[in-house]
């Protein structure tokens, strides 16, 4: 069973990818400092606690487990926080990635799958967006991800360190058995916030802007199931291990849902209408973000499987069954 190192493996996307890796015959070793991850999520392989900026600790883990590749998820991701504390994002996301890559190379590992984002594109110049779209991020979070992409591109070109960069659109949903799911503190993502409103756990849900040039005036986003993302990571890993070239791929469904459609769908899944308040547009929010995913389909053979209703079904079960169960066990 080949071993892979999954940095941020106790986090949201990293843990779901570890599930899919185990199903595909790999042993995922989660490496996480647990600042945002949860030890309870490391269910499919060993958990090694450590920071990606700690070269000595990384050396220990590489020597102990001898992974054939690295899947790199460990990063600070909250956009608003990146504006308030850009230094922390450059330190963790860029310096940490460099330390990780250096340690991987020292251990003889020559391949990495990198968790990137559509935030590297900035304001969309066309919809849907393909991988040739100009990259002009609007905030420090997006710039740190783009910097790592550029570092990996140079490492491939000049020293042969190969990588696949996966640019997510809106990750959502949960494991269908409710073993793991979305668990952030504070929570800033639309689906968990809408579900919390439906559960009565907060006062309501805010829609930021109803005057966008979209079919109902609310912003359009491309929601992709986290298990579809996980499947793409496994395919990207196999691509690299088979000698495939470095590349970047969009991961989205290719269709978008408006925020109002999302609210209506959460109400339908939960059977609980909830209060919705209108708020002004947020600075930097694009009217629409939708992926052109043809490249991932053609090169990786990746096809997203799950619809918005399936995303919401899995998320509802996680928030009403799985998360309360884990919280109870931890208390």
Brief overview:
The protein is an alpha/beta fold and 331 residues long. Helices cover 41% and strands 17% of the residues. It contains ten helices and 14 strands.
Give a verbal description of the structure.
α4 packs parallel to α5. This protein starts with a strand and ends with a helix. The longest helix is centred in the last third of the chain and has 23 residues. The chain contains ten helices and 14 strands. β1, α1 and β2 form a beta-alpha-beta unit. With 331 residues, it is α/β, with parallel strands linked by helices. Helix content is 41%, strand content 17%. The protein has a domain of 214 residues: NAD(P)-binding Rossmann-like Domain (Rossmann fold). It has a seven-stranded parallel beta sheet with strand order 3-2-1-4-5-6-11, with helices on both faces. A three-stranded mixed beta sheet has the order 12-9-14.
How are the elements arranged and paired?
Layout: E1 3-7, H1 12-23, E2 27-32, E3 47-49, H2 55-65, E4 69-72, H3 79-84, H4 86-106, E5 111-117, H5 140-159, E6 162-168, E7 170-172, H6 190-198, E8 205-208, E9 220-221, E10 223-225, H7 226-241, E11 247-251, E12 257-258, H8 259-270, E13 276-279, E14 288-289, H9 294-300, H10 308-330
Parallel strand pairs: 1-2, 1-4, 2-3, 4-5, 5-6, 6-11, 7-10, 8-13, 9-14
Antiparallel strand pairs: 9-12
Helix pairs in contact: 1-7, 2-4, 4-5, 6-8, 6-10, 8-10
């Amino acid at each position: 069973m080949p071993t892979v190192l999954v940095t941020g493996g106790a986090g949201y996307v990293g843990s779901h990818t570890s599930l899919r890796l185990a199903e595909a015959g790999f042993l995922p070793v989660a490496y996480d400092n647990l600042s945002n991850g949860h030890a309870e999520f490391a269910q499919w392989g060993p958990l090694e606690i450590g920071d990606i900026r700690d070269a000595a600790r990384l050396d220990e883990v590489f020597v102990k487990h001898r992974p054939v590749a690295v899947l790199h998820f460990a990063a600070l991701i909250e956009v608003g926080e990146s504006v308030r504390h850009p230094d922390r994002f450059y330190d963790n996301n860029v310096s940490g990635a460099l330390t990780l890559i250096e340690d991987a190379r020292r251990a003889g590992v020559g391949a990495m799958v990198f968790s990137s984002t559509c935030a590297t594109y900035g304001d969309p110049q066309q919809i849907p967006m393909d991988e040739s779209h100009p990259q002009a991020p609007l905030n420090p979070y997006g710039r740190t991800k783009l910097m790592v992409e550029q570092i990996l591109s140079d490492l491939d070109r000049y020293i042969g360190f190969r990588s696949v960069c996966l640019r997510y659109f809106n990750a959502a949903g949960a494991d269908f058995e409710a073993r793991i799911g979305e668990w952030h503190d504070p929570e800033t993502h639309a689906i968990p916030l809408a579900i919390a409103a439906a559960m009565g756990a907060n006062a309501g849900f805010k829609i930021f802007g109803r005057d966008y040039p979209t079919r109902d005036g609310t912003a359009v986003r491309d929601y992709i199931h986290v298990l579809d993302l996980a499947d793409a990571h496994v395919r990207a890993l196999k691509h690299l291990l088979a000698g495939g070239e470095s590349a970047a791929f969009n991961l989205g469904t290719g269709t978008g849902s408006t925020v109002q459609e999302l609210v209506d769908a959460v109400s339908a899944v939960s059977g609980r209408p909830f209060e919705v308040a209108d708020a002004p547009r947020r600075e930097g929010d694009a009217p629409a973000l939708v992926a052109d995913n043809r490249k991932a389909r053609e090169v990786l053979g990746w096809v997203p499987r799950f619809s918005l209703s399936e995303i919401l079904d899995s998320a509802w079960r996680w928030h009403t069954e799985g998360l309360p169960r884990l919280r109870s066990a931890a208390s």
